[in-house]
Give the backbone structure.
Amino acid sequence: MSFVDQFWQLTVTGLLVGAIYAVIALGYTLVYGVLQLINFAHSEVFMLGAFGGLFAVRALLPSGNINALLSVLLVLAGLAFGAASGGLAAFALERTAYRPLRRRGAPRLAYLISAIGASLFASNLAGKEFGRDSVNLPKDLFTYNTEVFSVFGARVSSQDLVVFLVALAMLLILDRVVSGTQLGRGIRAVAQDADTASLMGVNVERVIVRTFVIGGLLAGAGGFLYAMKFNASFTMGFIPGVKAFTAAVLGGIGNVRGAVLGGLVLGLVENYGQFFLGADYTDVVAFMVLVLILLVRPSGLLGERLGRAA
Amino acid sequence: MTTAVSARLSSPLARRLGGCLFLALVTAVVTGPDGSNVHPLDGVKNSLLNTRVFGFLVFGLLLFAVTSLSGRTKPIGLTQVRTRLSQAVGQRGTRPTGYLLLLAIAVLVPLQLSPAAQGSLFLDVGIYALLALGLNVVVGYAGLLDLGYIAFYAIGAYTTAYFTSSVINGKVVYPLPVHSPLLLNPFFVFPIAVLIASVAGIILGGPTLRLRGDYLAIVTLGFGEIVQILARNSDPLTNGSRGAFGVPPLSLHIGGFSYTWGQDALPYYYLLLGIVVVVMIAFSRLERSRIGRALAAIREDEVAAEASGVQTLRYKLLAFAIGASTSGFAGVLYATRQFFNPETFSLQASILVLTIVIFGGMGNIFGAVLGAVVLQGLAYILRDPIPLIGFKVPDADRFVYFGAVIMIMMVFRPQGLVPSRRRKREITMSEQGMGSADSLGSGEVSA
Amino acid sequence: MSTVLEVKNVTLRFGGLVSLDNVSMSVTRGAISAVIGPNGAGKTSLFNCLTGAYRPQEGQVLFTASDDRQSQLVGKTPHKITALGVARTFQNIRLFPALTALENVQIGVESRQRSGALAAMLRLPSNRRDDRDSVAESVRLLDFVGLRHRVHEISASLPYGDQRRLEIARALGTKPSLLLLDEPAAGTNPAEKRELEGLIRRVADTGVSVLLIEHDMRLVMSVASAVTVLNFGKVIASGPPEAVQRDPAVVEAYLGAAQDEGTGT
Ligand SMILES: Nc1ncnc2c1ncn2[C@@H]1O[C@H](COP(=O)(O)OP(=O)(O)OP(=O)(O)O)[C@@H](O)[C@H]1O
Ligand SMILES: [Mg+2]
């Protein structure tokens, strides 16, 4: 099949995966905004969210048939539990791997390293506790519901639609939160200049914790979406994590709308690229994008800084 | 109401008690039984709802008692720091007898070990000590983070496979589907691999280091992954996941003299010991040279270093390339002893080397080696249950512990087991707001 | 009289804020010159443009090295500019805090050395010679600035005035033909100021041109042979110190600033 034949299918998949990258990328961008640090453990927050949502759905799954309403409710429950697990994980992460260092005024390198330690710890502990095989969502959650509609001949399952719409909704909500609420103003103030923000009466500590938790809620729900589309395993965080970071840099790290744009663009580029290079090289494409953007336009498509984003 | 509660919770004593008990419970879970994806909470449940948890809680309380009673960690005043620092600087003296003693231990102890332990001593301790020495130049000296360090090791190993062949049962075996028209003795591959690895390092680091320092971490992370993917999927070049089989062992032929490093691990170990000692000497000279000083200046204040004429980018790149070439060198050594395939060069291996450097003490040469000996030694010993306690660390769980080691070091002892004096001073000072202690760009972490 | 530095129409903006507005000035070789002006006038910004820390949007900075070769400094990296022969100190002292006084100066001295990593690891003769030279030259400079007795002390543990002098020694280590001093007397006591005055003269006597930013008018009047006055990023006067001191625009600028400060506190 030629690229033209495949184009719309690739586009649909690209947007779908891209939306998930965007949701994760927000966590990187928010934390980068307030701390100017790459949160290397964010990928594990995503992974724990996936497990949280998945196990919750499995526990709640009735033995009988599933009708459409029940299916929707289960997905919502999965999202809620996924988000809660992610938020909790992010909170614990901030408490254990970041805050003690901040209290001491540690050098930046120390934060990167402790986050890597946290990531290693969390993913391998998840492997120990949840087994090392990948886990799927119960297959019959969507069986009644396999009808497919098509866009220009590209097949879209309703599951895909759900994933995409939920991701989109989360992105919109976050954008509102950052631009329109008191907390959002706090985040932007800290991102611009933490010292000044602190002098102006912003509780910087609290803003930092909440920024982590917001990123965690999103990543957790995103993890559940990802697990719904693919599967969950203790190592699942790494690749989407690197890609989401790439998306954040692509859009302009620290910039909320940039992260969304970056996620979608990366999803598309990666899927088109995969058509030419083969599925084995999908991840290589994402990395190329990262290196290219750093070489050509390190401040990203929309420019950096959280403060300017909204 | 909430403020009252949080006020009580944030009293230092309560916070420390909470921290100690939390640590105890986490330890209980980590050392406890596994769960499964069918019963995801069983592991935690069986760890916590079990009499053993009391043992851990007692341990937590003890920890609390010890940390609270023994010299409450008051922040020391600046003047005290000053006098202590001035004292510390005066007494730099080399202790040749100490070094000789260590060397004697390194030479004699392996003779007493079982062949399996000797093999592990070469592969797990020796090679990783060498790797850690190289990464220490990047992390410890240059204050940068390289998360794809093992990729250069892979480059060294595959280069060796490309340039060598062996004869097995009368048949010539090429380790890879492609091979160099000119086949070499592995010893001659060392300079080639070092060159290729350092060029790869410069190509990767050159553009990245111009940007923020922390971008190097993510780019190297991606690079490590790419190298592994390429090795795995380029069957016509690398044999894919089947790996490279048939790299000859090291051998020397000088005039009439001929020696081959065979099945026995000890000769390999002694060769490696020699190399490690030489590298230690070379790198400690590097640190005390103008290059080491320039790197220290870059860590402490990049703007001032530039203004003092230091070519900051060039020095960072140099350190990065020295790290890469050490890794490539180790890759050659590894390839001549052990079969390898793409899975050998995982991200976890990179992070393991990092753990060793952190644990031992960033910037300290002895720390790097000691870190490899202690961490890898413990991992080896704990494969089997300890008598009496019955505690052991299954291979699969090892990285839970390494992750914990990294975090604990960063929180409680960022300078590592054997700190570098200069590095420790930098950390203390930067925590008091003077200078920095890495090369990740200016700007403080907001607090 | 030749000029060592020629600043032509330099303009530096930060967003809407114009920090330097069409600044032109020149520095005479071998002389001690000064830049003065109220707080926020743009003095440090000017230094930053001269040393490559900032890149002005417009204008040129022409530097004539001791071998009469002229180069454009705008667009060059700081270490290149230092290599050409322009060294500086910082208003808020920037030493390498965990290094000793000697090591701090060595960093400057060694920026002119060329022995590489391999030479260092093998202790080749070139490296050993570099090391010897660097120590000897650094000790000489520490002696020159009066810090002989502090050689092995950690720089952060030195008293404030010594830190300022150490920074000068480090800058001199790079063998500059032009030395830029950003408020070298700030925060020092009267005795230290007198010593500093002597030090600046001795530096100039070695043939190094000096350009200093200073708020202490007495010091400026006594050492500088030419003064440029900045206010709100503009040059409002320049010439010999006595003439500048009487210039009504200067009096106005300082009076205005003094009044501001008076009402501000
Ligand atoms: N990096 C920067 N970003 C934004 N504005 C800057 C920056 N650097 C300087 N400025 C602005 O440029 C103006 C001039 O500052 P500069 O530091 O050059 O003044 P100065 O004459 O050295 O003052 P002082 O006597 O207080 O040292 C100020 O308004 C300052 O806020
Ligand atoms: Mg100033």
In short: Chain C has ten helices and ten strands.
